[in-house]
Amino acid sequence: MRFGNERTRPSAELAAQIRLAAPKTVIDLGCGPGNSTENLLNRFHEADILGVDSSEDMLESAREKYKGTSLHFEQMNISPDMTVDKRYDVVFFNACLQWIPNHKRLIPKVFDMVNDGGVMAIQLPLSHRLVIYDIVRKLENNEKWKGSFEGVEKIKTLEPEVYFDMLSNLTDDFNVWETVYYHRMKTYDDIIEWYKGTGLRPYFRVLSEDKQAEFCEDILSRLREELPMQKNGEVIYKFPRLFFTAYKYGE
Predict the structure, then answer these.
(1) Is 197 strand, coil or helix?
(2) pTM for this one?
């Protein structure tokens, strides 16, 4: 996976912040191809770790990559309406929450999956603060592209203060923090390549290949205007991410 180290670093840093010394059961919600699940295995060697995702293709990749390890992978749809029939010491939710609606219902449901004495740990990108996100939003309303993206799925991220209030309703033992990563990009095209794997996917679903290339060119021209090149010829891709942990204790 291109930019694999940059993409998986936040999940490793989130796992490192979990105070539990030896959890027995861990679930990785929205595990994708299993990179975050591997980070959990590195952190909690003795735990029974399950990765779940809605995409069977992602799960097949994970099963193939981690064949022979103790990791398990299953299909599961994560939503505010999901049924919670099992609880875990660690409920890990990395870089997936932003695509699921109704966080005010979903986060309490995810917290309900946590055993007494356990923790919910979440990381999500603050994509709406990215320069490229602002460029895409403006292009959507540009005369050239207006009407091309009807029904395109948008990120559902809320502001940190909203999550703070949600967590304070669930537990007294929680932490919220933000990290801004300064990713080193060799070219402006590298930023496009990064975003193709995440934020541009919903737009590509409604565009032909020719139109996809044209849309990327329009984004690229604006990136060159918005982001200065550094003295060494590289470009800084500032990427803010929000983290929180919430611990559950019995009555």
Answers:
(1) coil
(2) 0.95
| 239/131 Cα distance (integer angstroms) | 9
Place of tokens 């929000």: 242
d(CA 243, CA 221): 32
Q: What distance in Å separates the CA atoms of residue 226 and residue 13, rounded to the nearest whole number?
A: 30
The full set of domain ranges for the chain reads: 1-125+158-182+239-250, 127-153+187-233
Instruction: Report, at the CATH architecture level, how domain 1-125+158-182+239-250 is classified.
Output: 3-Layer(aba) Sandwich (3.40)
Bridge-based pairing of strands 72-75 and 48-53 is parallel
Percent of the chain predicted with pLDDT > 90: 95
Neighbour tally for 29: CB within 10 Å: 24
Q: Are 209 and 203 in contact (CB under 8 A)?
A: no
Under a CB-based contact definition with an 8 Å cutoff, are residues 172 and 242 in contact? no
Q: Tens of pLDDT along 165-222?
A: 999 999 999 999 999 999 999 999 999 999 998 899 999 999 999 999 999 999 999 9
Tokens of 195: 């975003």
